[in-house]
């Protein structure tokens, strides 16, 4: 992952994690299976469809395609910001994958990697189809009228700081599991709020459907992570 700028200006482009060489162990019988987030992403992708990537795609009647969103629109802002937000969730999940032997936590982390990488690809696809750049000099959250002052690598609400990521890398076993789940709950809460803001204000129907899927899935995952913390004698961080 490319290091975040210290001054918070603009949004960096992140390297994609495209190889998943390690096959994670299957979830044991009787335990939770975490197939549904990835399945949700696949369903959303099918629902969007390739022609629908362009805002106001050509209807069956053959009427002209509507103009693509502007670079300072909510459509472009949400796509860029959520792609950046998702990338950190992917990065944190790769960290915990190597810091614990818990099949439950590693399976959950793999689903985060898979689902959010898929969704990030869809968001980048919107920008590409609209002929817009994947990065901008505008501050994150500007499209929401909620500009965020980046600090210590945290570019948006809910994003972990560099200090927090370093601590996660230093832990192992149950200590790492608890800290990862606490960081990810904060990350999901802010991500769901951002997605809901686009559902409420956005104009591009396919992107709104993708955002609504994020809201639904991340709320469900927050409850699941809260339960996983309770099993470890912990609770979400304040």
Model description:
It is a single chain. Helix 2 runs antiparallel to helix 3 and helix 4 (162-170) runs antiparallel to helix 5 (173-201). The chain is mostly helical. The protein has six helices and no strands. The relative contact order is 0.17. The chain is elongated.
Our estimate of the beta-strand percent is under 5%
How many whole angstroms does the radius of gyration measure?
A: 18 Å
Specify the overall morphology.
elongated
Average pLDDT over all residues: 82
N-to-C SSE string, H for helix and E for strand: HHHHHH
N-to-C CA distance = 28 Å
Helical segment count: 6
* Global structural class: mainly alpha
The protein's oligomeric status is: single chain
How many strand segments? 0
Q: What fraction, in percent, of the residue positions are helical? A: 40-55%
* Low-pLDDT regions: 1-9, 12-64
Strand count, sense and barrel status of the largest sheet are: none
Key traits:
single chain; about 240 residues; mainly alpha; about 55% helix; elongated; disordered N terminus
Please describe the topology of this protein.
Blueprint: H1 36-48, H2 74-97, H3 103-129, H4 162-170, H5 173-201, H6 205-231
């Amino acid at each position: 992952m490319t290091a975040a700028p210290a001054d918070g200006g603009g949004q960096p482009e992140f390297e994609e994690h495209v190889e998943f060489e390690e096959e994670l162990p299957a979830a044991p019988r009787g335990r939770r299976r975490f197939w549904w987030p990835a399945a949700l992403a696949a369903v959303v992708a099918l629902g969007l469809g390739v022609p629908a990537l362009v805002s106001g795609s050509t209807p069956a009647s053959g009427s002209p395609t509507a103009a693509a969103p502007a670079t300072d629109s909510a459509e472009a802002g949400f796509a860029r910001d959520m792609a950046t937000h998702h990338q950190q969730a992917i990065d944190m999940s790769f960290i915990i994958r190597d810091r614990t032997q818990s099949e439950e936590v590693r399976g959950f982390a793999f689903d985060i990697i898979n689902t959010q990488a898929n969704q990030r690809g869809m968001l980048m696809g919107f920008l590409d189809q609209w002929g817009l750049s994947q990065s901008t000099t505008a501050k994150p959250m500007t499209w929401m009228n909620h500009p965020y002052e980046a600090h210590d690598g945290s570019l948006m609400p809910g994003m972990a700081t560099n200090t927090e990521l370093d601590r996660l890398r230093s832990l192992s076993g149950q200590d790492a599991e608890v800290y990862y789940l606490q960081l990810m709950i904060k990350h999901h809460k802010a991500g769901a709020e951002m997605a809901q803001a686009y559902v409420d204000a956005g104009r591009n129907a396919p992107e709104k459907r993708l955002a609504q899927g994020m809201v639904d899935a991340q709320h469900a995952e927050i409850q699941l992570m809260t339960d996983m913390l309770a099993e470890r004698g912990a609770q979400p961080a304040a």
